[in-house]
């Protein structure tokens, strides 16, 4: 890999960033404004407005109809007209008509779901390559899966390095690769993020820029907290905690390839390119100390949990009590989230979806296993995670969180702080969830801003 390529930036653009010709123009302006932006990973055209349909979804529909022997001309026409419109508006020399005909033919012949879906990125990559004047590299040549559809990392790295070694610029479509016999295989939805991460690692990029339609990772869900602040630096570990608790930022599997290589990810907004976005760095990197300015980094959470409450006198003295209860869950293939306990009580918090339709069986199995005085299921529980590497060195964080909740008369059903002191997880009733997020946000973000303002 040449010196120039090693200093490159890998840039991935999501579907809304490439939804129409105007978005393509913004993308080109971003790429040409920095000569280090050399490797470009596009998604398929996404939504142009909220009721619009993503090209990927239209392709899945075509494939489903074709597989049932039904007419798929309507969704196909929608796909065709969107690509033709972009090509015409941008006055591209590349005419996508032949490729579109080939896709229609393959669909009629019984294309697989993965093949159909991958064509969204494939064709968009061709359009973007033509528009930028960059060479196009088919992801099927460089992203390798085994026969079971599992990504093969060493093979992928080797194929990418070999293919890109004399290419200072390239467009590589996201979301798909190929199996050992050349059959197209896709990642799960949102998987272009993974392709971007793989390319960044293969070319040893200095940074992986992931361009989307928000100005970074937000401290809280903007549907709950209006104008939530952007997190400027977050560690991979914090991001994992927030994503697990429902914050949607990147595809989960996109983190590992760059994290292992120490390449930071920068989430940026195509519609606001001057905004610095959010930098995702490793926890031990010096950059991770550039705090958000607040003790906490983010707040996330989810509804849809329940609690199995178990009571038994002298439970604490009964050897193997917890193990017997957990064995019941294990046998039933149920995983749990938290297990707070008292002296004669234990509670297991788990996702509702696991117990749906199986409540009676679970309770009777637990009764049989440990003969409790009481065993019941409580529904309608939310879990809220307050995440921040700043907590470790700040005293009173928990006090502030619970003061905020107490002032709002919100009852806390469970508290769990991980040993890493990276997060505090709180169990609440569903009805209190949104207010709790707002109160904690106010306590740490709004009040923090106020307190730094000079006194008048
Ligand atoms: N186009 C695919 C999807 O909609 C992959 C991606 O955008 O990352 O899921």
Explain this structure to me?
The chain is of the alpha/beta class and 456 residues long. It folds into 2 domains: 3-206, Acetylglutamate kinase-like (Carbamate kinase, 3-Layer(aba) Sandwich); 298-452, 2-Layer Sandwich (VC0802-like). It has 16 helices and 14 strands. The chain is globular, with a radius of gyration of 25 Å. The relative contact order is 0.09. Residues 450-456 have low confidence and may be disordered. The structure holds aspartic acid. Residues 15, 43-44, 54, 56, 120, 174-175, 189-193 line the site of aspartic acid.
Describe how the helices and strands are arranged.
Blueprint: H1 3-6, E1 9-13, H2 21-32, E2 37-42, H3 55-67, H4 73-89, H5 97-108, H6 113-132, H7 139-142, H8 153-164, E3 170-171, E4 176-178, E5 184-186, H9 192-202, E6 207-212, E7 233-235, H10 236-244, H11 255-261, E8 265-269, E9 278-281, E10 298-311, H12 321-331, E11 345-351, H13 352-355, H14 359-370, E12 374-387, H15 397-407, E13 414-417, E14 423-429, H16 433-452
Parallel strand pairs: 1-2, 1-6, 2-3, 6-8, 7-9
Antiparallel strand pairs: 4-5, 8-9, 10-11, 10-12, 12-14, 13-14
Helix pairs in contact: 3-4, 3-6, 8-9, 9-11, 12-14, 15-16
Aspartic acid is lined by residues 15, 43-44, 54, 56, 120, 174-175, 189-193.
| Helical coverage, percent range | 25-40%
What structural class do helix, strand and pairing data support?
alpha/beta
**Tally of individual domains:** 2
Within the largest sheet, what's the order of strands?
3-2-1-6-8-9-7
Number of helices: 16
Mean pLDDT score: 92
The geometry reads as globular
Task: Return the string of H and E elements.
Answer: HEHEHHHHHHEEEHEEHHEEEHEHHEHEEH
Q: Tell me, what is the CATH class of the largest domain?
A: Alpha Beta
Radius of gyration: 25 Å
Strand content: 15-25%
Small ligands present = aspartic acid
The CATH topology of the largest domain turns out to be Carbamate kinase
Can you summarize the main beta sheet?
7 strands, mixed
Which runs of at least 5 residues are low in confidence (pLDDT < 50)? 450-456
The first-to-last residue Cα distance is: 58 Å
